[in-house]
Amino acid sequence: QVQLVESGGGLVQAGGSLRLSCAVSGSIFNINAMGWYRRAPGQQRELVAAITRGGSTNYADSVKGRFTISRTNAKSTVYLQMNSLKPEDTAVYYCNADGVVAGTPVTSWGQGTQVTVSS
To answer: How far apart are CA 61 and CA 88, in angstroms?
Structure first.
């Protein structure tokens, strides 16, 4: 069984910072891309940032220059440092990981962590 456990969400004022963490455990191997997505109320889930095993990153235009994604391959953990937060960043944030489970490529998801930015 594969588990992705997010932490670090919460309530913060506009302009503040939060750091999200996501730890992967279980029988998942060869994790390549890891990423963070978010879903705001009434909206579709969107990509926030992604990072490959080699360290290549990709960001949504709305967060470039404010958010930084990083990972520790040894511990299969991905982080999202969020600075200069805006009320429009309010959403449930989900991490995911692309790996191999029982010989089959899969994308696994966490349960989500709420981020609320007050104005």
So the answer is: 13
SS3 87: helix
Q: Quick: pLDDT tens for 38-61.
A: 999 999 999 999 999 999 999 999
pLDDT digits (tens, 9 = 90+) for 87-112: 999 999 999 999 988 899 999 999 99
Q: Burial level of 56, CB count in 10 A (0-12/13-18/19+)?
A: exposed
Q: What letters, b where the CB count within 10 A reaches 16 and e where it falls short, cover 61-96?
A: eebeeebbbebeeeebbbbbebeebeeebbbbbbbb
Count of CB atoms within 10 A of residue 57's CB?
Answer: 14
CA 45 to chain centre: 12
